[in-house]
Amino acid sequence: MKKNIFIIAILFGLVSWGIYDTIKKNNMKQESLANTEQAKNKVDESSLEVGINQGNLAPDFELKTLEGESIKLSDYRGKKVILNMWATWCPPCKVEMPDMQKIYEKYKDENVTILAVNMTQTEKNVDSIPTFLDEMGITFPVVLDPKSEIAFIYQSYMLPTSYVIDSNGIVQQKITGPMHYEMMEKMITEIN
User: Which residue ranges does the record assign to the Thioredoxin domain (predicted)?
Assistant: First the structure.
């Protein structure tokens, strides 16, 4: 009888150990898969070429808002960004602004933003920029490029010019000319 109890206790111990070991291995496998997925989604920036072509790490820059606040493109890492080069005198820029505002309002809580870079050097009157933005109802971030440095880096020779940048800071697309709502929505929903 004692021998049977001893054997049952050993079998119970082995079964318990087997269950514990299986659960532990499954948890480790799940952690490993989660880490692998995170690693896939994270990009090693040191291995990427900085540039404006598709697949390049978008060149970082720092510009000031109308209020004097400094904003860097890299501040938006982790978000999808539509980087838009524009001016108040540009008719196609005026056409796309309302759709950009709609996109911003719809997706701002889903890690999507619009960053509008005003080609300030081309403006006749810099004081007209805030009035323009108020009239258009623009609430997305707007920065000033007073020396056209960013326009030069991003080769914005025609306005508007936009870049779609994924959440890892990688250029996915360049668009020359105005965009419309459906076009912007399609681009941002198709990228990481």
Answer: 52-192
Same domain, 74 and 12: no
CA dist 53 and 26 (Å) reads 42
Q: Give the whole-angstrom CA distance, residue 3 versus residue 8.
A: 9
DSSP H or E run through 82? strand 80-86
CATH number of the structural domain spanning residue 185:
3.40.30.10
Query: Residues of 82-97 as b/e, b for ≥16 C-beta within 10 angstroms?
Result: bbbbbbbebeebbebb
**Phi and psi torsions of 160, nearest 5°:** -80, 155
Q: Is the model's pTM score more than 0.90?
A: no
Q: Is-contact 121 152, C-beta < 8 A?
A: no
User: What is the residue range of 62's domain?
Assistant: 46-189
Give the DSSP per-residue string, 124-139. Answer: S-TTHHHHHHHHHT--
Q: Which of 68, 43, 66 is nearest to 56 (CA)?
A: 43
In angstroms, the CA 166 to CA 61 distance is 16
- pLDDT of 18-67, one tens digit each? 555 555 555 555 554 444 444 444 556 667 899 999 999 999 999 999 99
